[in-house]
Amino acid sequence: MNSSTTNLVLAPDAAVDLHLHTIYSDGRWTPEQLMDYVLNEGFSLVAIADHDRADTVTVLQQLALDKHLPVLIAVEMTTLWRGEMTDVLCFGFDPNRNALNDLARDILRRQCENTQEVYENLQQRGHIPKHAHEELTTLLGKPSSQQPHELVALLKKHIGDTGEDSAGKIVWEAGCTFAANDIAAVVDAAHQSGAVCLIAHPGREDGFVNYDAQLLDQLRQEVLIDGLEVYYPVHTPAQTAMYLDYTHKHRLLTSSGSDSHNLDKKPIKYRADLSRHLLECVGIQIKA
């Protein structure tokens, strides 16, 4: 497979965004729309890191080559550490020895099983008509990361617009969960596949582990993580400074990403040199 980033050399101030999502996971961008947008905006490199989709590399790389846009091979894997959610960005894995795809397929299988169970529970509780079997088929055809959100949207359609919190509460009470892998298994599979692994949005608080230096120390005693997504829209200046200091102290990689899922949350132009060592690890040169 040809890579769109082969022999890529970037200026230090080249615009990059290393955390984007499309309809292949829970984004609303089609890959074509997203690539056209970043091309028109003057980005020099992006990474499409769809949740638990290590199987779309060939399609995305061919599209990137057709559009003459460098797109770094990446995936954001849903993981658990000590029972809590923590996402992991895996960059530069080899599609020909892709151990991550086995874990991603298992997540899809488990998410589909959970979706079917929740759907049947909602039917038994009278929230969804028992004759609407085609809805379940449609749900099960969605990417794993979309399925919990689609269950909430479906419930709102049947019971009326009671508000996201109310519908979401009913769905979670019916047993809905986000399928995830153990973080150690993901990091091991990524390293087997030639990737580097960074903790995504370590400072997020909405359902994820919110890392401080002490928690990062504990994590690194258990898992060989390669770095942190230091630059992220919801990180405070104090968090960014703390994560940057931590990566420098422990010689870890840094990345920068918007986590854009749609045009309402646009890609961000980060300087390439903010992620210099990460990009060099995956074969991309940054001019001195």
Q: How would you describe what is shown here?
A:
It is globular and about 65 Å long. It has helices at residues 31-40, 57-67, 99-124, 133-140, 147-159, 164-173, 183-192, 213-222, 237-250, 276-281; strands spanning 9-10, 15-20, 45-48, 71-81, 84-91, 181-182, 196-199, 227-231, 253-256, 270-271, 285-286. The chain has two domains: 9-101 and 180-286, Metal-dependent hydrolases (TIM Barrel, Alpha-Beta Barrel); 104-173. The protein starts with 8 loop residues before the first strand and ends with a strand. The mean pLDDT is 94. The protein contains ten helices and eleven strands. With 288 residues, the chain is α/β, with parallel strands linked by helices.
Shape: globular
What radius of gyration results from the CA coordinates? 19 Å
Instruction: State the fourth-level CATH superfamily of the largest domain.
Output: Metal-dependent hydrolases
Beta content comes to 15-25%
The total tally of domains equals: 2
**Termini, distance in Å?**
30 Å
User: What is the CATH C-level name of the largest domain?
Assistant: Alpha Beta
Could you estimate the helical fraction of the residues in percent? 40-55%
Helix/strand/pairing class, anyone? alpha/beta
Just name the CATH architecture of the largest domain: Alpha-Beta Barrel
String of helices and strands: EEHEHEEHHHHEHEHEHEEHE
Number of helices: 10
What is the count of β-strands?
A: 11
Let me know the average pLDDT: 94
| Spans of at least 5 consecutive residues with low confidence | none
The major pleated sheet works out as:
9 strands, mixed
In CATH, the topology of the largest domain is named TIM Barrel
